[in-house]
Amino acid sequence: MFARVWVTGDPTSTVLCQCGDPGQAVWFMAWVPYALTHAHNPLFTTRMLSGQGGANLLQSTSYLLPSFLLSPITWLFGATASFNVAETIAPILSGWAMYLAAGRVTTRWLPRAAAAVFWAFSPHIVGSEIYGHLNFTWMYFPPLLFLCVYELVVGKRLKPVTTGVLLGALVVAQFFTGTEPLLTTTMVAAVGLACALAMAPKTAWAARKRILTGFGVAVGVAVVVLAYPLWYLTTGPRHVIGSPWPAINNLGNQLSAIVRPGNGVHSTSVFTEIGGYFGPAGPSGAFLGVWLLVFLAASIPLFVFLRRKIALPLLVSGAVSWLCSLGAFLTPISVNSVHWWLPWRYINSWPLIDKIGPQRFVFMTAACAVMLLALALDCWVTVLAPPANRLRLHPRAIKAGTSVILLAIVVVVGLPVAESYTFPLTMLSEQVPVWFRTTARTLPPQTSVLTYPYASSAAPDAMYWQAYDGLSFALVGGRALIPGADGKHSQHVDPLHGTDALLTNDSWGYGAPPVPSKAQVRELRSSLHTWRVDIVVVVPEGRAPAWALLLFSEATGQLPQFQHGAAVWTVAREAPASVWLSAGVARPCVIQLQSLAGLENADACLAADFARS
User: Fold this and answer.
1) Which of 252, 279, 348, 559 has the fewest CB neighbours in a 10 Å radius?
2) Triad 531, 537, 540: Cα angle to 5°
């Protein structure tokens, strides 16, 4: 998967993309090491959104635990290197966790290994890898949670207090890796546990002391450690209420996504490029393949015949998670687009649950499916063994023949998913703009820098550049979940206006942005002082750097200096002189400029406009 990082690339500079979600993820990998060495609260930052209120990092998926664990790599080699390590070990970590969990449904190596590989490279995990979503690639929590719950209810190898401590520590670890998978997994696990207890009420009642002790200790550990972070998440500074994205808690996967990988799995799309990946998109995260489902369905009689009771809780949990993944409704059902409401509609507005994207429940569907795969393979070996023994074959021959049959089954059920991938993943080795590799690193730590393209826009590349520099300066703007215009809901639900909207809309997109009005220029000038901006930097990236050159010249009342391929303004603390240059945007010498090297040629016409003003 990552050959283009470790074999043909450079792990300190080769990355999925400096843009989009991967660029944001690299910033998060840089944050905790910086906070530790500068005595900052790791839950809150003003290194981005400087002068704009900062960001509550528990509101965003900030990967605090991975960032902490890989801090030594960040200190030694930079945030890009630690991000690449985190991405590369994610399937290994996830796979080993599933290998351990599968050991509770089979003792045979091959079924456990098949479950591990199917989980580690499931479409949802691989689809998250291409965007750097470590919360959905470090997927150790579902299988390890299964291990802990199984131990409390069935296993009894450890004392309940010991298991409870381990379970509580596991919840804490997942909280700081990603809260959405924590809540989603817990909801589905509760369904599976309830099913298991209902199957054997007398046994459950006899073991009530052990079960209650284990879960009680787990809750106690989690509450003690997470009391302050939970308060910070729900009521702390800059928290948001309700769904963070418009309609995300309604919209789910298509009904057919579980058996159809989707269109164009081996081609790029505008959507993936916006997200920050420039390679083939791969299959839908919900895709399992028809042959896996057929094999599991064919194995259900064996589960019953061999009395593998663990199969029912796994089947129920998988079905419930898949149903939740469809969202609040199915549409269209007919030519009239009638909505068929689903159960998710009735719980998606509950506190905390309203922050879940239901389509992501599919990772729990996959977790249940691969556990059932391991169980089914074990059952088939058990059924095939007696007939083979009656043939009086050598034990080694029987074992080899059985292994061949199992491998054939694994290949058949896994082939539809495997052939939908395009490996190795596409990587980029773009150069960080020279100004950020040189001048930015020498700035005093308190220096506040506003960049174009604006870091809060759909082109948050400046977050990557800042992380590359070790967060050596404070960044105005940034991509994190923060309150919008009403101060309560996410800015994606209730967008910010004024200067933020102006810079966001005109940093990314197509075509020349509209000429800013005098009121917008005045508002920008006011924002530069309200945000306490020290330096404005325009680099060739972005929708229209020539437009930005004019805009910031007007707002600062001065011509830029050109340093290392960047246009730079030092913002004066006193109010600048009144300057109006936007008529110049129509001049051929400015509007046709496509790079900052050409922007230097605009000095003459800008100077003439300044003289007239």
Assistant:
1) 559
2) 140
